[in-house]
Amino acid sequence: MHQFDYTPEELMEKAAEMRAYNMIALTAAGSGHTGGTLSVMDIAAVLYLKVINHDPANPGWDDRDRVIWSAGHKAPALYVTLGMAGYFPVEETVKLRKLGSRFEGHPNRLDLPGIEVSTGSMGQGLGVAVGSALRARLDSKNYRVYCILGDGEHQEGSVWEAVMSAAHYQLDNLTGVVDLNGLQIDGTTDTVMSIAPLEEKYRAFGWEVFNVDGHDIKALISVFEKARQVKGKPSVIIARTIKGKGVSFAENVVGYHGIPPKDGRYGNESLERALADILGEKVNDKFPPEKVNHLLGIAEQYRADVESELNNRLPAYGNDYWWNGSGIMRVEMDPTRMGFGRALKETGEDIDTIAFGADITSSIKMDEFFKTNPERKQRFFNMGIAEQNMTTVAAGFAKEGKTSFIGSYGVFVSGRNWDQIRTTLCYNNLNVKIAGAHGGISVGPDGATHQALEEIPLMYYLPNMKLVVPCDSIETEKLTKLVSMIEGPAYIRFGREATPVVTREDTPCEFGMANIIRFRGIRDNFDGAFDTVLSADYADEGEHLSIVSCGPMVAEAMRAAWILKQEYGIETRILNIHTVKPLDVQSLVRAADETGVILTVEEQQTGGFGNIIAGAVTRGRAVGKPLALDMLGINDTFGASGAPWELMKKFGLSAEYIAGMAKDLLDKYRSSLIKTE
Questions:
Q1: Residue 677 — very low, low, confident or very high, per pLDDT cuts 50/70/90?
Q2: Is residue 446 domain-shared with residue 347, that is, in the same domain?
Q3: Is residue 300 situated within a structural domain?
Q4: Residue 260 forms beta bridges with which residues?
């Protein structure tokens, strides 16, 4: 079934309209990828509105052609294309990256019709395409499979494994489409990690190769037809494009890889200029100001409705305890990654320290290693989008007596290369420090594919691994320096967005020892309302319960202690387990013995951290002592797109939920004691 028969001229107009919707959606979202969504738009228009057989009224039609977007960060382009093709009203795409909207930061096939597979982690889509094409052959199906790939994505070794297998099985029903725009986050593809000569590589692997101007609609139509005629081997279309195509201030600008128009709301210069660039003299006919304002209004009203619903679900108390919600208990906010950057800048003074980039160098502050010390550039190596290779290369340096720092999104640097971490780093006990940046839901609108909710147990159970999860930017700086001086592999988990700064320069921080935090009373500044001491120096104060936490949840535990005291007179012992491994078991056993009630709170899958704590407590205590223990976390589900603080509320992680659960647990504990007397 094929319901579109646009002329090349009509497709050009459709592509321009799609670019306009794309820019409006990105502006409304306040985040997302501008450059690649604009470079791929002509390809998407030709594929969905001319080339492929599909039925928007029946997205699951088994004989449809498949288009797999391995380059999942180009999701906004996919969404507007599907909208223009009739899978849903295209106006809905202005809800991009908003909580519950279906238009997540990276594609989620379970939420939106027309998406073949959820993607976002680079290098995985082509393998899926191979499997889909093989299934067509096995079941005598005539559908074709197309896979859209980024050029920088070819730095992942998994791409070449899929390339090899497709040729081996002579999959002439498979066509790869490379959006070759020459730029990625850290710079040009040639300078980050060259993939040239790409044409020769594909040919050497046994593929038929076509080259095309990725913005020439007629040429694209022709080359897709030529690819369809190839027999006996897979084909690849290398489409040379311009990143940011159609928007003058974004074209070939590296910085526009992952940001929307900088001025934000319509009425400011960037979006107006973008629409004028894209549509030219037709801008007021196609997208007059009232239409644009209407579209942005849809997004704003949707966001307001979501926020209202989240706040209505939030447990209510007698006062407003939200961060900086009143004139008291004020707190500063600072991204924890800033602390990592400050520490790396200082640690880099050691000439035996090596640092690595993974195409998000600046984002995770790895660039602080050399930014003000250009002579260090010779000790910095950008490995591109290749976590597995980065890990083993860093191991090679460590084997030769160097200290290596590697880093990326936590979900990628702990998961994609877990075997390399296990066997090459931990088994050999090599001195490689891993920055698990952008941990948890702190990446917010990027969505589930980029949110690390499982890496604490992944790292904890590896022999020789040290694991620290600092609570704020100050503690991140301290712990990064500490692990840099400890021999062997270590993992540092920290977030992306600004979080409360709840420690001070003089707050004690000792590797392997928990901090005990106690609420003392309302103050003007939040951190001044608490005392913090090393667990070894703490004397029991007869608290009613203990909250055990790490990372960004420490601040929420502290706020929960304030709520519990003000609302119920409950005294809370907070354990900041900033060093998860080696674990301060004694402090946990004492908390269990002295309070009898333990609630673990984590920005992870529930039990990833909690079960580690529970195991330590139950193994270390005397048999027969009463104990109530429960866990609060993310309950066996993936993350979602949304603002970080929205996600804290959605998943029930904020202090309001912690306080409520702690109160219920304490009540149950007290009831059980009465029954046994």
A1: low
A2: yes
A3: no
A4: none
